[in-house]
User: What shape does this take?
Amino acid sequence: MGQQVDGPDQAHRRPAGVSDATVEALGKLSEALECVERARGHLYSLHQLIGHADLMLDDAVELFRSAGHPELAARVEEDLLGRNVIAGRWTFQIVEDFDDGYYALFRELDRQARDELVGGRRHLYEAEMKERRRSPGRPGHEARPAEG
Assistant: This one.
């Protein structure tokens, strides 16, 4: 069994000639994309929550009718149930527009920057930060998983 080499794997090592400024810029772009990924998750949560709420309105309409409030039931059913959440759009349309537009471009530019500048390598900034912060040789501070 060969000895484990200490340090990041090749996919997380800075290519020769790449400056600190370039690694920092790529790290900031990646961090921004991670924020957008989180926002996208919230957008999907909005999509699911609004959809669930709209389906719950069926029960509310029936309960208002059963309780003797047909006018209120009709108003909820006709004015609110199935209503667009933004002019002309249900949430699935918002999600699709986001995914196909802003999100797709953001991911494309992140990948293009990494491909052009560091051969597609990801998380170089974080890999170098890990090397600066870990205590080599200490349990739990390994550079990477043990080779199996």
